[in-house]
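Name: VLIG-type G domain-containing protein
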Amino acid sequence: MHRKYLSENDPKTQLKKYKTQYLSDFLDLYKQRDDCQRKATDFARFCIKPAMEDYINRSLGIDIVEEILTSSHSAQYSSRSFFQYNIQQELLHNEDFDKFDKYIGNYEKYVKDWIYQHILQEMSENESWCKLKNKNLQIIVNKITEAIEQASKGENGVLLPDDTESITELISNMRKYLIKDVSLSTLAKLPIKPQDELFNRVFGCGQLCPFCKVPCEAGGKEHKKHHAALHRPQGLGGYSDLDSSKLVDALCTTDVHSEKTFRNTVTKSQWHPYKEYTTYYPDWHIPPDPTIEASDYWKYVLVKYNDRFAEKYKVKPADVPNAWRRITKEQALKGLREAFNIK
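Structure predicted for VLIG-type G domain-containing protein:
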């Protein structure tokens, strides 16, 4: 026991144990800094800085959404139809199969990525980004400074001398640091992502038709049934005829009026009548109407990328009508305008 006591209280052991603390204290004395100043630095670094970053991150997402919706590009987000028109028009002009494929097959991700890129461009081309950063930083700095002043008052309500000088100076320096540190790359880390918020506001549920992959056009997220005014040739969504192994050009609205059957992973590869599609897709309403035609836009897309879609789905190209093959790019654009009632 005696040896243990001597060992634990040996000066050499104690010096080694508290070496870091002694060094810190020595440096404080050498640089004429006191313990309070170091604690102020630690408090600012480990408490105030994370609080400021958290406030900015939580506020920026919604602020960016409001900025976009009131900017010169707000018309693009004024309605789901107008936004869809702009994206599909861009796809037509770019003539990029991979983008068409992503838009059809992974619609929500494609649209959110599109919105994200638009936000980056919008924020970098004007002073909106700097204004939003400065606004949020100033709000939180004012709140923290006010709280420190309240906590540092004496009984008579007067600020105690030198009590807040270290922290307020550090906060000022931290503000300058965060102005530089909160960059456009911060967008990817925001808890409230502006692209998600804009998608939810403009597009609602984002559900796709189980046959042709057209997105639901019902507003908001509270609707009971998904629906779309115009469906697409089902081959765009990967449906093919079993006997011929060819992509099909028929519309869902035509097939749910017919005696045809379908099968997929949802039906566990069992054939099921199109007429009774609600057995497996009760949330969708597809009107049985053989008179409805696909828009010239999607006819043109299927013809132009027939071989590419067939290659993707590992089947043969669709036997499209000859009339579809004569549709020009200009006619496809006209059909797009008509589909979305764009004058």
